[in-house]
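Amino Acid Chain and Its Fold in Token Form
===========================================
Structure side: the spatial fold of the chain, written down as a series of whole-number tokens.
Position: the record begins directly beneath this header, with no further notes in between.
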Amino acid sequence: MLESIEKKKENKNPPLLYNLAELQNDCAKYFKISPDQTLQIIQDLYEKKLVTYPRTDARVLSTAVAKEIHKNIGGLKGYAPAAAFAAEIMKNGSYKGIAKTRYVNDKQITDHYAVIPTGQGLANLNGLPALSAKVYELIVRRFLSIFYPPAVYQKFALCIKVRKESFFASFKVLLQEGYLKVTNYSFLKGKSQDGTDGAGSDSEESVGKTEALGQNAEKEEASRRQEDGAEEVKCDEELTKILTSLKKGARLSVCSYEIKEGETSPPKRYNSGSIILTMENAGQFIEDEELRAQIKGSGIGTSATRAEILKKLVNIEYLALNKKTQVLTPTLMGEMIYDVVGSSIKALLDPALTASWEKGLTLVAGGNITSKEYMDKLAGFVGRRTEYVKQLNNQSNLQAQFNAAAANYKK
């Protein structure tokens, strides 16, 4: 018997535009490339006038750019994989109201707005390596998607009672594609929409790499679209009709029973892209609301330095990077450094410390305190902590921690 059924429509809006961190994260997930390599590719696209300035933290446009955005869209009518979408946007005029949406906000822009296609330089596409062409496609499709309506889902949550036992099921049916039709990336199948293997070399090695990238990307996209825990089902009119007609108390026939065993898994390891995104959003780990707000727009490092910070940690062997998967793991030396700092100046491991010094700089800039007061406080902190470390006698405790960590690195 159907004990209860909940039916709810849900709108899923297009995501905000790309900034550098978001691009680095997606390129690590889709293509398994490092943030440094992603930056090199986007920088090359920028120099070829295909995209706007890449080193940006903003994910929105300025009002000034929004007024001229039709030029960017119009230019993309010459880009085959997305030409039909660009033409549809221009025909419908959906770009005209973009300035009143969440995708345009001058207050969220410091130096540069989001990374978007310029609609120019398309003649340079023919000479692009296959990977660069795919990164360009990511940027183009994300950009065009904001001019489309939300995707509409019908969500169902069922509770079925069999004798004294209750069974639960939840899933969602895609009713209207909305912007999702724009994000049907050609590289998900290893082929571009015109049937070729993409821009650049058509050698066997190039084709093989492209197909591998497509397989990786397809898995990532399937995972991304199920993040809310509900199973996503393709639009099936017959299934939707049956579910919609169900009412509480309805009698349902049971075909079979099946027991599925599973285990909880630990959180996924960071990869080179997700760690960049986490650095940008380091404020999420700060409990104090005022300090969390202080670094909300900056985080740890900047769009121009985060990749270099990560690269340095790998080069000095504090972190290990799997180049095939882009998964990051600590080295034994990295764990030892962490233990040393954690046992002596633990505050250095807390992003709240970064936020507090950022707050001090803000107070100096606002004239609330003098630069001398700020430097005196900083010098006092360094001095007190240095004296504390000099007086520590924790070698035996650290040695025990090192030995315990080393056991996990034995080959």
Notes: The longest helix spans residues 204-224. The CA atoms of residues 60 and 103 lie 5 Å apart. Residues 190-211, 224-230 have pLDDT under 50 and may be disordered. The two ends are 56 Å apart (CA to CA).
